[in-house]
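Appendix B, record 7
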Amino acid sequence: MILHNLHRLSHRVPIRWWPVAALFAALVSNPIFAQEITSAKTQAPVIKQTAQKQSASLQPIIQFVLGQDGISTTPRDPNVRTFPKTAGPDKNPLKGWNSGSYNDAPESSVGYQYLPWREFEPQNGQFNFDNVESIMARFGSRGRHVVLRLYCDWHGEEQESRGCPDWIYSEVGVARLRGSNGRYMTDFNDPKYLREASQAIAALGERYDTDPRIHSFQIGVLGYWGEWHTYDFNPGGEAYDITRESQEQILSAYRNAFPTAKLVARYPWVAILDEARDLGFHNDFFHSNSGHSDEFDDAVDAGEKWRLGPIGGEMPPVLTAADYIKLYQTSKGTSMIRTGRYSTMKPETIAPEHRASHMRLHRLMGYNFQINRAVFASQTSNSLPVRVDLRNIGVAPLYYDWQVQFGLLEQNSNARLIQDADSHDLTQHMP
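Structure tokens (predicted):
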């Protein structure tokens, strides 16, 4: 079902002596759309958590930016204000370019981290959650919503797996395969591997499924980099494919472990993933001169995968200067984000001359809530009815619900009264 992109929020704010202009200031002057503070007439605002992803340790608010002061629809109706569209703020939760590894981009509200299985479970059945916490505390993820991927093999250059624990081979007896070209790979179809991987996934889910710091979990542990592919590996001259049965077992393990957190898969054209109706997807080769990247975007667009879960990914390190020019200085970057409906993406190092275009694409990703019109009804002695027409003019929805609040501000923008609005699900605002 496609929802109309214009929604109306109606609310009745208790009034004692605040004038209409004070309430209007809350909508016009204050860039906070869903500010997380406790109502108190005389005390300072206090951060509170009212939704899963809203936490005092993270950016607790969703912002909107109004292009100019509201314009009266007619001189005879001063209590109706309309607003022009804007590109949105520089930073909002769960969207935009993200910070990877130890990078600490100030505009990023999302962090992206790989989680080597060997560090998470160094001994069979002994899970090192301190290691997960240390990864989430890195500069690139601290204070942000984090995307995590559990992986086993990197790309098989080494005889010893970079990500799989040694006991998988020495104690459990999973084979470490070698291709005719000298590359190595863990036998991902071994039932013993699938059993142990499922237990590790369950342990992660038990601890982190409802953790407000989590943006999403990428469905990993199979294939190189946990991406469910075995590219360039051919033992005995024959291709090695991960079976559908293996895929089903790992997908089921993730679903059972993470009923709350969003799950994100690699390829929208892999049959079992394409059939799913509860997954987002990530493009690990976001490239302005790549048919593969275009194929990913087209599959997301044609199958409307973005309605089911967040779309993200990362730039590959092989981008050339010409690739960056095409991404940032032509319409290609905008087209990629609009077609693929990206909410977040891990960039490579950005040259200063591309910074302005980089931020333009940053603001374009994900949702962009805009107040189209605010209507203030006649004030009674105890309340002031207000209605806000809200649109999402971004490229994707907000995938976790957020508490909507109305507020009264003083002329200096200090909050005098903040009230939760009646139940309103922001995830239903489709672009």
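Remarks on this record: Confidence is low (pLDDT under 50) at residues 1-6, 12-52, 67-73. The chain is about 25% helix and 20% strand.
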